[in-house]
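We emphasize that the prediction below concerns an isolated chain of 244 residues; any contacts that depend on oligomerization or on bound cofactors are therefore not represented. The input was used exactly as deposited, without trimming of termini.
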Amino acid sequence: MKSALKILLILAIAAILIISFFGIGGNKEEMVCKGVELHVEDSLSMGLINENDVRTIIAEKKIQFGGKKISEINMGNIERTLSQSPYIDTVVCSLTPTGMVSLFVMPKIPALHVMAANGEEYYLDRKGADMPVGYITGNLTIATGNITKDFARKKLAPIARCIQDSTFWRAQVQQIDVVSIHDIRLYTRFADHTVLLGEPTDITDKLYRLKIFYEKGLPETGWNKYETINVDYKGIVIGKRREK
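Result of the prediction step, given as a token string:
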């Protein structure tokens, strides 16, 4: 939801700039571009690309702005070229009333670090698209086990979104382990037990029940009393006590 609002905001700003540009007099076709204004959204957050990275891509692809006629600048081609980066989600290219090219870049934000049993390692963004592993700050949930890219995209991405959208679960969940396509398990940072999610379905409801149990049940019984906590069955939470 947050990403969608940002995209709508960028598109609205771009539309205003274009309307303003064509609202002033003069021959726009002969106007010479004065340069580029670049903004990378969330570049200081979990994005894997920043303003300097985008400028490097522009230089490597030999995309020129300053000194060229506006009519010679292909906005669509610039958007497509920059969007080829595995770390870029959306690019909006427009013109300003002062003759500058304005570039709004939204990076892909990693939601999961996949370390599959088959040796594949990559980041997964909120939409389920994979990207090469890079350096990020902050905690990122790790997914291990029997994971194919198709399973990661269709089944793990929704789980990752639920975790990322919750301050509580972002702090709690350290690892998602895929034992099989019917057996998904969670490991948290602050408790010595395994959470059995079971099938990768109804994740919102399962995490809701687990959160209630964490907040109201475990403070009474102790965080390490149970070996496993099962939320696979609808409407209930089953705790298996640790053997003495």
